[in-house]
Amino acid sequence: MSKEQLMPYEKAIEQFEVVIGLEVHVELNTKSKMFCGCKNEFGSEPNTNVCPICIGLPGALPSVNKKAVESSIAIGLALGCDIAKTCRFARKNYFYPDLAKNFQTSQYDEPIAFGGKLSIELADGQSFNVEIERAHMEEDAGKLTHVGGSTGRIHGADFSLVDYNRAGVPLVEIVTKPIFGGGDKAPELAAAYVRAIREIVKTMNVSDARMERGNVRCDANVSLRPKGQEKLGTRTETKNVNSIRSVESAVRYEIQRQAHILANGGTIIQETRHWHEDRGYTSSGRVKSDAEDYRYFPEPDLVPVEPSADWVESIRAALPENPEKRRKRLSAEWGFSELEFRDVVNADLLDVIYATVEAGAKPQAARKWWSGELARIANAENKSVEELAITPAQVAEIQTLIDSGELTDRMARDVVAGVLAGEGEPRAVIEQRGLKVVSDEGALIAAIDLALAAQPDVLEKIREGKLQAAGAVIGAVMKAMGGQADAARVRELVLERAK
Ligand code: ADP
Ligand code: MG
Ligand code: ZN
């Protein structure tokens, strides 16, 4: 498939005003599913967490998961929404193999939360107010895996597998009002919005919020209108964009694609589109009209949800500190420079650093690990740092060993490599790889003697005050010791010898 023609981005935003609308699905981390007692668990054997209710056998009766309602209310409150005094579920009817019931139990005209807003700050400090239309409860569908073919999509596949473990997992869908005024920053704004939602639900611990697992998914609506025109342009809806980076790229791509079509007298078709992460383009999905007929009707098997004012207020009282406030507080506590802190936030490292500090590392050391070595490794593997096979607690443990002199920096990097390679906990890696700082002074002195014999002028230079001459000897000793000597101690010993 070839890319469509694109207008250069600068030219596109010069001619057109960009309007975006974001629908974010958040999978809740409740113990059980939305309407039955099946486990809500990622990674189980396919089709083991299923029952007559979530696969819709005739006569099965659903009931609402109270915890899921509580989490939905909490999300609504965190987004500044009003909470409905009463609301109902509805059946959204459609046929697709990932939906054994042939309808999705969702909310339609009576969402649990509505009318909120969220202030979003971009990397450059610009801030925007995004208005939230509603947040409603629904259930997830099963997961299809298309086998064969080249794209992983249904077209061209030899066969498809379906796993209903995810069917019936509670979701909250958060829908924005159309967002104007993003200007040339619309793609960044879309990404920052999704990041903010993810940060909120993660801080609240109502979702695992792991985008690579699909816990947070975004449908990005984009339309353009000629500058000065009142009427909104026709939108496209790019479905299931599953990383923050992709949200930005997909919106940018749609702007450039639509601008090219419009500038050449074409029209935009209201349709869903797919984002191809690997090659960075969107392709046409299905045509979708506003009046798409899902034959919504109120769910007859569930009573309305009527959260009492007391309950809502107790949920409000238990909300954690909002992420913006938390950032301000941490920034002060950690003592990073403004630039360091901004880099941490922009690189999405706040949470891992927080967890590493909680586990006992000093903030600066935690920052250096995650924004240095570990970010580099994650980048090279095209992952987020959270996807690396090392936890904040392990990083903190390794850092503690550096601080106590049991590991040199270089050895610590080896330990990290070992943990990442699945060799076990830091202690086990140290054991297996034989990584111990050589503290046997005799061995150090012998190595220093050898190095000095090879570079006889060094001691004289040190005596003349050229301390940097010691570097060559320290280097040779470290090499002889396989990097496992304490460099600071070696330096001390060399300087002593020059006295
Ligand atoms: P759908 O069922 O088609 O997904 P929703 O109401 O759930 O409709 O979501 C539509 C999203 O698109 C909302 O975020 C809305 O603000 C946004 N939107 C509506 N019209 C436009 C438009 N012309 N351009 C960009 N976004 C739009
Ligand atoms: Mg929608
Ligand atoms: Zn079930």
Outline the structure in words.
This protein is of the alpha+beta class. The chain has 17 helices and 14 strands. The strands form 3 sheets. Strands 2-5-6-9-1-10-11-12-13 form a 9-stranded mixed beta sheet. It has a 3-stranded antiparallel beta sheet with strand order 4-3-14, with no helix packed on it. Strands 7-8 form a two-stranded antiparallel ribbon. The N and C termini lie far apart (73 Å). The mean pLDDT is 92. The site of adenosine-5'-diphosphate (ADP) has 16 residues, from strand 1, strand 9 and strand 10. Zinc ion binds next to loops.
How many β-strands, per DSSP? 14
Strand composition percent:
15-25%
Largest sheet: spatial strand order = 2-5-6-9-1-10-11-12-13
Distance between the termini: 73 Å
Q: Please report the number of helical segments.
A: 17
Mean pLDDT: 92
Report the major sheet: 9 strands, mixed
| Helical amount | 25-40%
* Number of domain modules: 3
* Ligands and ions found: adenosine-5'-diphosphate, magnesium ion, zinc ion
Gyration radius, rounded:
28 Å
Low-confidence stretches: none
Basic shape: elongated
Q: Label the structural class.
A: alpha+beta
